[in-house]
Every structure is written in structure tokens, then in C-alpha cells.
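Minutes, methods subgroup
Present: GH (chair), OT, SY

1. OT presented the first of two proteins processed in the latest run. Sequence and C-alpha cells recorded below as shown on screen.
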Amino acid sequence: MVRGEFTDLLNSLYRTADTGGDLTDAPAAEAARLLRLDALTLALRSRRGMLELLWADPADPLGPELEDLQYTLGEGPTLEAARSGHAVIETDLGAAPNDRWPLFAPAACRTPVRAVIAVPLLLGVATAGVLTGYRTAPGPFPDGQYQDFTRFARVTLELLLHTPTHALASGTQGPDLHRAAVHQAAGVLTAQLDVTIDEALVRLRAHAWRHDLPLLHVARGIIAGSLRLSPDH
């Protein structure tokens, strides 16, 4: 039954892409279920190499939480897939070698997630984004599951190419940019600390990591004026 449902979903999404539909037409929770995963995210890679979370199940914070951890710590499967241009799989985060994501792996193990698969969305030799799947049970991803994941990655790339960034950013025709508050807070810091936007983002991430706080929590505090970072740190 699930196999037939997955094929139906793929065919439906390809028809959607052929008629100009975009990523907002793809049901993240349904796709995760049919792929036998517990969370599914898609991140867009910017021209500067940064990853922006564009798509996830809006009712489930697990995927965005794992993506925010990677963004804050600067390492993890989504980032590695984007940088290498190759699929990245970890079947047991709790047993991963110490030199593999030494910050991300133990942080991820404080969530229910235990296994992860990340596939780059390639346009020629360029990486347009990364599709990442998370599973709460450790163990290998069987060949059939891996093949279904890569098939789904191809259709999400088709949908991504039709997705207007302004619509995603506005929230009027799709999900809001997940880290809009982070970028707004970085803008505030450039003025407060007289630093570049890249330095402001580093300060934000460092503060979140040092105090073990969610990055969005720190960003919203800076925007609201309830948190000010020292120029010296």
C-alpha cells in the first residue's frame, strides 16, 4: 500500500512541476511517512554557500531543530552534503566516530533522532540545495529506501526550480523563511557592533552555542532589544 502511495505521490508532484507548481505543493509530513522517515527538510544553498531551510513539516519542529543545530554549530550531514556534492548517511548518531561531527552528533542525540540521510540537489556540478531525512530508529537505510529518497530528491529539485523566493520570504504564498529573524538580528548587530554581516552571524551563532540556546531565541531577543551582545565577544 505504502509503495503504491509513494508512486502516486511522485507522479502527482511531477505533474505539479510540469504545470508550474512549486515546493509549497509538496506535503512534507506525507512524504516523510511514505519514505519511512520521521522528519524531512529541504535547504537551499545561497550564492555565498549558506544554507537556508525552505521546506519542512510546519507542524513538526524536529526537522527545523536539527537544521538549526547544524547552522549554529557549522557541521552536520546537510552541510557536509552541500560541501561535498555527495550523499551523506549516518546510521547511528550515538555510535558515530568521535571525529565525525564532534559538536553536532552529541547535540543531535539529545533529540529523538538517531539516523540521517542527506542528498545534494545537483544542477550540473553545482549544488542547489540539500534534501535531508531524519529517523528516530538507528540502523541502515535499505537500498529500496535510499532509491526512493533519491527519486524524491529529484522531484523536489524540479519543484524548487519553480519556487519563487519572494513568495517563500513573504509568507503569503508559502512558508516563511525559517531564519528570517536571524538575518534581521544580524542586521541589528551590524549597526550595534559595527561589524560586517558575516561577523554578525558568527556572533549570533557563537552566543547561541555558548549559552546552549536555540538560535531563533537569541535572534528574537536581539530584535526585541532584550538581549545585547558585547562588542568584545
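2. SY then presented the second protein from the same run.
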Amino acid sequence: MLKSIQYGLIVAAVILLSACGTTVKRIDADETVDLSGAWNDSDSRMVAEEMIQDSLSRPWISQFSASSGRPPAVIVGTVRNLSHEHINVNTFVADMSRSLVNSGQVDFVASSNERNDIREERKDQDLNATEETRNAAGQEQGADFMLTGQINTIIDVEGKQQVRYYQVDLTMVSMANNRKVWLGQKKIKKLVKNGKLRY
């Protein structure tokens, strides 16, 4: 009788633990899933693609190409997160960089951090690579334009509802004379019900 009770308790414990276990379901990386209403990967991808497409459709590209005879070289500078919440700006910058490179309409220059790694590799090549495969220093392509920006938010809360307003502003600046050749703006407004305020 005692063994039967012990066996029953063990089975019940196993069932209870199984019911409390974490479940994981893999979904498509492009699928939009809104859990908290905060900035997420879908916002980052959508804003980056739409703003870069808008930038690439403006006349600054054709004007530069007509005067120089080549596509403009672009570098992504600093994008500041001035919002109320933590936003991984690196993923947003990566999304913009991918859209720029894949457009084929501009040359894309490596960032300052990436350039440092490449220069270290070039120094190593000077010492260790054969002359036929060695890449000389001083042959880098300079950027003609720098893309910078900032992300701002306004959050309005009443009871269990909140409106989350995101505004992303991007600016394309000429490296030659600091002239602003493109100003882009994208707004996202979300109504979140029964959500906890998250900063």
C-alpha cells in the first residue's frame, strides 16, 4: 500500500514538472510578434528598409553620380538612442547597412571599428603574406557621405493603456562640405492595452 502511494506521488510530481516546463517554438525570423509593445526586431527591420529605400530614391545619388562619374560611397555614423527604453541600436544599424549594400546604388565603406581590424590584418600581411597576395596600405576608399540619426519616443499612459510613439530621424551629410543632402523621418505609433509600462 505504501509503495503504491509513493509511486503515485512520483508520477504526480513528474506530471507537474512536465506541465511547468518551458516550451519553445521556432518561428520565421521575419514573422512579427508583439509581446510588450516595445521596440522590437520587426520595427528595426521595417524602419531601416523603408527609410533607406526613401533615401535611395532621392536626387542626391543621381546628382553625385552625374558630377563624379561614380556611385557615392556611404558610411553609417552614430545613431543615438534618445528614447525611454533600451533599444539595441546595433541591430538597426546592421539592418540599414544591409539595405544600403544590397541596393547596389552606393558603395559602402566599413565603419571605424571594422577599419581598425582590417588595418591590423593588412599590417600582418606586410609581414607574412606573399608579395602577389599582399594588400598595400593607403588604398582605402574614403566616404563621400555619412548617415547619422537618432531614435526618440513619447509614451502616454492612462490606466492599463499606453500609447508608444517612436520617431526615427536620419540625416545624410556630405563629407566634403557638411551639406545635408537627405533628411528622413519614420514614425511608429502603438496602442498597448493591459501592458505594463516598460522603459
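Chair's summary of item 2: The chain has five helices and five strands.
Next meeting: continue with the remaining queue.
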